[in-house]
Structures are given as C-alpha cells and as structure tokens.
Amino acid sequence: MAALPLVPEFERIDLVYKTLDKTPFGVAVFVPKSILKPDHEKSYPVLVHFHGGALVMGTNPELPWLSKWIFQLALTTPAIFVSPAYRLVPDATGGQTLDDVQDFWGWLHASFPKELQAKFPHLAPDLTRIAAVGESAGGFLSIQSALLFNEDAQIKAILAAYPAMYPDIASYNQRPAEVDPGADAVVSEYLAKVRGDGVKPTVRVSSPWPELQDVLEAMGKTGRHRELLGDDERLTLGYALRKAGKMPPIWVIQGSEDFLVPKVSTDEMVARIKETHPETPVHYTVVPGGDHGFDNANGLDDEWVKKGVEFVRQYWS
Known about the structure:
Rossmann fold, single chain, 21% strand, alpha/beta
C-alpha cells in the first residue's frame, strides 16, 4: 500500500489509446497538482509506467504494488506520470501484448499532447524527455519498448525492476523435474477456458490483484510461463538486442533473493546488454536480501534509490 498516500498529490485523468472488439485500452494519467496552476505554463517530462504481474495479471496502475519511490520521482521532478493498459496472457499472446505497447507509443506521440491539453490547456508533455519505468513484467516491457520500438517511443532512460523474464534466459522459470500435478492442472484448465477449441477469443486488459493469483502461482511452480507467452521472437532478449539501434541508458534493480525473477537471470540480462551495447550507460543495483517486489516501501531518501535516480536524471529530466 506504499504508493496510496501519495495519490492525493496528483490529479488523475483517464484516456483511451485504442479500442479492440469494443474493449477500451485505458491510459491512467497522473499530473502533480503542483504544476496545475496556470502560472506554471510550460512543458514537463513524461514518466511512462508499465505495470507488473507477469503479463498475466495486474492493472494500470496497480496502486498498492506501485513502489513509493516511483510516484515520488514523478512528484518531485515534476513529471507527468502515464500508465497504459495492455492485453494479458494467456487470453492473449505475449506478441499481442507487444503490439499493444507499440500502439501505445504511437498514440503517445500523435495524440497525447492534444488530449492532455483538452483537460489542462496550460500543460504540455515534453516528448523529448521520456523515461520508461516498470516492475517485473512492467520492467520487461520498458526494456522491450526501448529495444524494439524506440524509433517511435523516443525513450531517454529506462528504469527496470527485476525485469529479466526472457524465454531465452535458461534460469528464468525453469520447468522442474517433478511437476506438481495440481498446479499443472490449474494452468491447463485456464488455457482450455481461454484458448480451447471453439472458444471465442476475449480481450482482457485488467485483472487487479488477487484475480488470477492461482494461475500465476501455478505458472511459477510448473515453469510454464514460456508456454503462456507464446513463441513470438520479439519476446526474446537475443532478438531484441539484435534489432535495437542505440540503446538508452538503463537502471536495473534486483533483489538478491528474488524467488520469481532470480538474480542470476537479471545478471545474465545485464551482461548481454553490456556485451552487445557497450556504449550504453548501465547502473545495476542489487539489494541484499531483496525478494520480488522488495522495493514497494522504498523512497527517494533510501541511498540505493538516490544513486539510481541521480543516474537517470543525467539523461532524462
């Protein structure tokens, strides 16, 4: 619940960046109230946030799970905080999720300034100063945005927490030698429900916690996340690194004891980024004892956060 006390410091509006099968894909926009006065007429940097949830669950944004330091960063910069919805697996494929992310970036540059100014005429987003931030799956989408879509996105800095959920990193979500049959059945039953023969596809863009927690936990126990994501090569780190041009500076955050995205997976991701893009500034923070989501209550005053934010602000705000 760390981020909730900060919410009154922002004005929230909700926009739509696309519609599919009559389902709106929402964008939650949080504007610091400190910049709402007309005498503050100027442009402000944009902090784009992708929510976590293994691409299986979550909503935009999942406020109780949004780390305190992220909202504090938007508040103190000040920056316009923008959080889009996207299709969730396994109802969709991971490739379809990436399609949504690409569409969002197109909308941000083509339509967001006008839609924001319809509500706040004196405000303008500075789309030359965009940072992408996310936790877990959201960190993954922030990185993939920069690697796959940065010609459209124009991201200046990436902030990614425990993000290394790549199908081509062997240590991530391995299938155990002995699989819990009950957990396997939970995954199989849900797949049959949403992807089975004769099932009409549905568009699911929001499952706030604890919806589908049982499916997410079963996926973790059985090592079936790769299966749920699908086989689109854009989901892999190798393809994305090959496709990327110049990569923006990146701050990676990882807990040493993460049980969902192990440190060894993120170590490999960081090493491969440094190998293929040696010119990219990388700040890698490993917090001893940190588990998945460990940073929920951390703020800008925490020393490791302070150092990471100083790194990011060199390139962004």
